[in-house]
Amino acid sequence: MSITALDSAAPAGPRQRVERRAHNATSGFPSPSDDYLERGPNLHEYCVRRPTSTYFFRVDTSAFAPRVQKGDLLVVDRAQPPQDASLVVMAVEGELQLHRYRSRAGRRWLERDEPGARALSLGPNPESPAHWGTVMFVVGQLERVVG
Predict the structure, then answer these.
(1) Assign residue 116 a region: left if phi > 0, alpha if psi is -120 to 50, beta otherwise?
(2) How far is residue 59's CA from residue 97's CA, in Å, rounded to a whole number?
(3) CA-CA-CA-CA torsion sign (35, 38, 40, 41)
(4) What's the first-to-final CA gap in the chain, in angstroms?
(5) Domain coverage including residue 127
C-alpha cells in the first residue's frame, strides 16, 4: 500500500486563538452566558498527543479494507512503539509503506491485507524494514460515494 506524506503536526509558528461567539453584540455589554459557550470539536487536539513526532499521511491505494481506504488521512506518531496488530508505517527498500505489525512468542513480522502478499520478517539484519511510525488514527469517510 502506498501513502503520501502531507505535513508534520508540529506548530510552524505561534498559535492563534480563534474565539467562537453565539452572537455579535453591536452595542452594550456582552451576555454573561458567553463565558459558558462550549468550543467546537478540535480534531488536532484530539488526534495529536505529541506534535513534534506526529505526521499526517494520505492513503494512495485501498488496503486493510474496510478500515483504511484510498483517500483516508492517517495520523502517525513516530514516538509510539507498535503493539501486536498495530498499523505501522515502515521504511521498506527506501519507500514508506503501510503494514500491520505482528508480534508473538518473541517473533516479529509485518503483514499486508493484499491477496498473495508475503509476510516480512523483522530481525536484527540491516536489510530488515525499519519502523517509521505507528498509526494512531484513521480519518475517513464511512460511506463512499460511487460515481
Answers:
(1) left
(2) 10
(3) positive
(4) 23
(5) 3-8+45-139
**Maximum C-alpha span of the chain:** 72
Residue among 125, 74, 132 nearest 101 (CA): 132
pLDDT-derived band of residue 55, with 50, 70 and 90 as boundaries? very high
Q: What is the CATH number of the domain that holds 118?
A: 2.10.109.10
Residue 76: which pLDDT band, with cuts at 50, 70 and 90?
very high
How much of the chain, in percent, has pLDDT values that exceed 90? 36
- What pLDDT, in 10s, does the model give residues 31-48? 777 777 777 788 888 899
Q: Is the peptide bond before 32 cis (omega within 30 degrees of 0)?
A: no
Q: What are the backbone angles phi and psi of residue 34, rounded to the nearest 5°? A: -60, -25
C-alpha cell at 136: 494512531
pLDDT at 18 over 60: no
